[in-house]
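User: Please predict the structure of the protein below. I'd like the answer in structure-token form so I can feed it into my own downstream comparison script.

Assistant: Understood. Taking the following sequence of 196 residues as input:
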Amino acid sequence: MQQEGVIKFKCNWIKTAPLNFELIKELNEWRDKLYDAKLIGETEGIGYGNISIRYKNNFIISGTSTGKLPKLTAEHYTLVTGYDLDKNTLTNAGPILASSESLTHAVIYEHEKDVNAIMHVHHLELWKKLLKMFPATGKDIEYGTPSMARAICKLFEDSNLAEEKIFAMAGHEGGIVSFGNDPDEAGQKLFSMLNM
């Protein structure tokens, strides 16, 4: 299994004061629900899972190594302002480094203009189900890399991912991504699949 939470892109981090909490209040409420359901959390001392919301032409995402924290505050979110897959770089401004899965979030926002919230969680049993029933990235593709970002773009082009709004990362055991027009749609997609 790949090591969780390791940033695989070069990050240009502009350290700033925390973001306005009102910007992430709804997102943070969903993060609490995901944590309580153990979809975001910690395994063997390593945090997993992240959550984001579109903000203007950018997006706000939970920071790296925050999965293990029971509660997040504005200090645990950051604004991603740019990325370059060819150079494997990402720029973020905030009090914390962006999540290791930020490139995944970035390409979904760029590809699907009506997506305004994304959730990356872990659940082994649901992951196994999704691999059989829904779009999935390849087994040889590592999380948090330009290869993963490009594989997601290909899923949008070659499958019904835009309609399904959920996929498994075959090479990232337990890794699932859901998305929607708002946090409610993205979160409810996950919970409806869990309750199937």
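That's the full token string. Residues 107 and 150 are 8 Å apart (CA to CA).
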